[in-house]
Amino acid sequence: MYNKFLKTSFNFLTSDLLGLMADKNLPLSEIKISPKNFAELVFAFYSSRISSRVAKDSLAIMISKEITIEELIYQFLNGLLNIGKPLLQKEILIRRKF
């Protein structure tokens, strides 16, 4: 179980986070997501609280805004954050465990 979580974390780091940094031309010093918030995001996905799509789209927001995954989902569910992707909105509402 621990090895699977490590592999998932490594994949999010090397594929998703580094990919977003490259796409947005952001140096590490400008990334807003803390190691703790990154770990909580990965764990939310790992424990099936959010889907892969929600995790990836959330990471894209979290790298430029200091926010936890719980705060992000809370803001969305309470109309404080507009995520303009209908499939993402549906996925968040279906997995509503926050």
Radius of gyration: 13 Å
Helical stretch count?
Answer: 5
- N-to-C series of helices and strands: HHHHH
Output the structural class: mainly alpha
Principal-axes shape call? globular
How many E-type strands? Answer: 0
Low-confidence stretches: none
**Percent range for β-strand residues:** under 5%
What count of structural domains?
Answer: 1
Taking all residues together, what is the mean pLDDT? 82
Distance between the termini: 23 Å
Helix percentage range: 55-70%
The main sheet comes to: none
Topology:
Layout: H1 2-23, H2 35-46, H3 52-62, H4 69-77, H5 86-94
Helix pairs in contact: 1-2, 2-3
What's the quick description here?
The protein has 98 residues and is mostly helical.
Can you characterise this structure?
- The protein is mostly helical.
- The chain has one domain (about 1-95).
- Helices cover about 65% and strands about 0% of the residues.
- It contains five helices and no strands.
- The protein has helices spanning about 1-25, 35-45, 50-60, 70-75, 85-95.
- Helix 1 crosses helix 2 (about 35-45) and helix 2 packs antiparallel against helix 3.
- It is globular, with a radius of gyration of 13 Å.
- The relative contact order is 0.14.
- The mean pLDDT is about 80.
